[in-house]
Amino acid sequence: MQSAEWSKIVRGETRTQTLTTHKEVLVQRNAGLGRRDFLKAGTGGMAGLVTPTSAVAQASEQPTTYRRMAEYLSSITAIDCHDHLRPFDALWGYVETERGRGMNLCGLWSTSYYQDPSHLTPWKSGDTFDTWWARAKPDFDNGRATTFYRYMLAAFRDLYGVDFDPISDSDARELDRRIFQNYRDHRWVESVVTERSNIELMIIDPYWSRLDYPTAYRFQARNLNTSSLLSGFHPSEYKDPHDDPYRFARERKMAVETLDDYLAVLDLLCKEAKERGAVCLTDDDTAYDRTLQFDNVPEERASRAFGRKRSELAPQEIKDFQDFIMRKLVGFAARHDLSYQIHTGMGRVQGSSPMLLVDLIEANPQTRFVIMHGGYPWMGETAAIAFTEIVRARNVWVDSCWLPMISYSAGKRALHEWLELIPSDRILWGSDSHHAEGIYAATEITRRCLGEVLAEKIDRGDLTEPQAERIGKQIMRDNALEAFPRLKSILWKG
After folding, report:
1. Measured in Å, how far apart are the chain's first and last C-alpha atoms?
2. For position 394, what pLDDT does the model report?
3. Are 73 and 469 spatial neighbours (Cβ–Cβ below 8 Å)?
4. Separation of alpha carbons 227 and 284, rounded Å
5. What are residue 339's DSSP bridge partners?
6. Do 279 and 339 form a contact (C-beta atoms < 8 A)?
7. DSSP state, 86?
8. pLDDT for residue 63
9. Is a pLDDT exceeding 90 seen at residue 212?
10. What is the pLDDT of residues 7-54, one digit of tens each?
11. Pairing of strands 95-97, 100-102
12. Alpha helices in 369-488 (DSSP H)
């Protein structure tokens, strides 16, 4: 692909004659509206994610306060605190098509969050776009009101000039072709993340290869995903070598015959992760498997499980071991000056409330904790934890990553409540996505959500515009540099 052509794709200027688009007509009708204003036009709730037509029509109805805030938030070079972007050649969503292996419309939707509450027809071997689309098109009918559906519409609209809701069969086919074409060049991901989304750094959590993940992008900040380490009571727990601390030990000729030996391996894992550039430890999986109640288990009791297979252990013995290890890892995080991100809410719902972490947090005042996903649906409890710890150790941040995609209304409600309860330097965000379009869409919905909240506070007289702008910059960028201090050494946009 020629560089001139690629530059047009990055700027969103390419058009295909067969693709129906409203954008050029709308720009003519709104000649006084700049390109960024057009794309970032205000939303009334989620209505702005429907079509370019509705976005521009509502822009004229939005208070000018919102439009100024939206423009300002878009200008901030953001830091994304949580994502799951795989290396380009191994992106989740690639399928075998008649054009070869690559990303297509099915791949984007199937690796978005729409698949979580809704059935989405999978791509079968030998499928063409038409055969898949004929089966999959009805899959969207019952999910159109969900935020997991609506957040993705911004990516199709802004990156491709396409109204997905509704979309004709011919336009869907052309969109599929353009997605495949874009993903033939690795620059597509780089440009969407760093230019269209205006993100400088992104903490990528490789849950598919927790202990062995290369730096794949210049905007990548590394972590160490510790979820698999909790179950190290026996080597048979590890089927994937990329998650296996015993393999790590063998490669370094470390004997692992006692619990103390295992703890030494974990300490070295944290040390080496930091040396390779990790800015934090992350537990993004435990909340899906068990309770987040990590009791203060004596070492003697935890050691009873070490060296024994799962089949030989009672559930309480497994929990005791995991609780003990989690508390040790939290201590190692402080020792190596690494923050600790913990997934809360929307996992194993009966055991994923952030309130279950309070004892762990209070027992470790030297560790910086990041409560991920706002603890949804326990957003108020999450803020209460941060509020309480402000007078203790000031070691808690709340991360809204994923929350505006779960429920836009809940995202707005949480941001309003958090800003009314805790200092604005305690709030973070993240896109929590798997591909470029998802990252763009998540970033856009976060900026819109935050923009509406700040504009409403300005219009009520709670904040001045300069105060709101400062808060917006804190949440989108500055707070990450305090919660994860090691990010400062890898800033690259100048």
Report:
1. 29
2. 94
3. no
4. 7
5. 280
6. yes
7. P
8. 58
9. no
10. 454 444 543 333 433 333 323 323 333 323 323 333 333 333 333 333
11. antiparallel
12. 379-390, 403-406, 408-421, 436-460, 465-473, 479-483
- As to burial, measured by CB atoms within 10 angstroms (0-12 exposed, 13-18 middle, 19+ buried), residue 127 is buried
CA distance 477 to 305: 43
Nearest to 28 by CA among 3, 62, 53, 2: 53
What was the pLDDT predicted at 62?
54
Structure tokens at 101: 């292996």
Residues 6+ apart with CB under 8 A from 227: 207, 210, 282, 283, 284, 285, 286
Is the pLDDT confidence value at 131 over 90? yes
Tell me the two tokens of residue 96: 């075998």
Nearest to 105 by CA among 36, 195, 7, 175: 175
Cα(236)–Cα(400) distance, rounded to whole angstroms?
Answer: 36
DSSP state, residue 196: I
Q: How many CA atoms within 13 Å lie on the side-chain side of 340? A: 28
Mutual orientation of helices 408-421 and 379-390 as an angle, nearest 10°?
Answer: 20
Q: Tell me how far CA of residue 317 lies from CA of 183, 287, 377, 410, in angstroms.
A: 48, 18, 30, 38
Are 324 and 297 in contact by the 8 Å Cβ rule? The answer is yes
Give pLDDT tens digits for 74-91: 999 999 999 999 999 999
| Cβ 375 vs Cβ 341: under 8 Å | no
Q: Is 0.85 topped by the overall pTM?
A: yes
Structural domains in the chain, sorted by start? 3-62+92-182 (no CATH), 196-490 (3.20.20.140)
CB 53 within 8 A of CB 26: yes
User: Rounded CA gap, 80 and 188, in Å?
Assistant: 18
Alpha-carbon distances of 221 from 41, 71, 399, rounded to whole Å: 31, 27, 17
Of the candidates 102, 128, 192, the one whose C-alpha atom is nearest the C-alpha of residue 156 is 192
Q: Could you tell me where the DSSP H helices lie in 137-195?
A: 147-160, 169-182, 187-191
Arithmetic mean of pLDDT over the chain: 89
Sign of CA dihedral 146, 148, 150, 151: positive
Backbone angles phi, psi at 20, to 5 degrees: -70, 130
Q: CA-CA distance, 120 to 71, in Å (whole number)? A: 35
Question: Is residue 472's pLDDT more than 60?
Answer: yes
| Helix segments in 33-138, DSSP class H | 35-39, 52-59, 64-75, 105-110, 129-136
CB 70 within 8 A of CB 39: no
Distance from C-alpha of 35 to C-alpha of 177, rounded to nearest angstrom: 25
Rounded CA-CA distance 219/314 in Å is 44
Write down the residue that tokens 């693709």 correspond to. Answer: 19
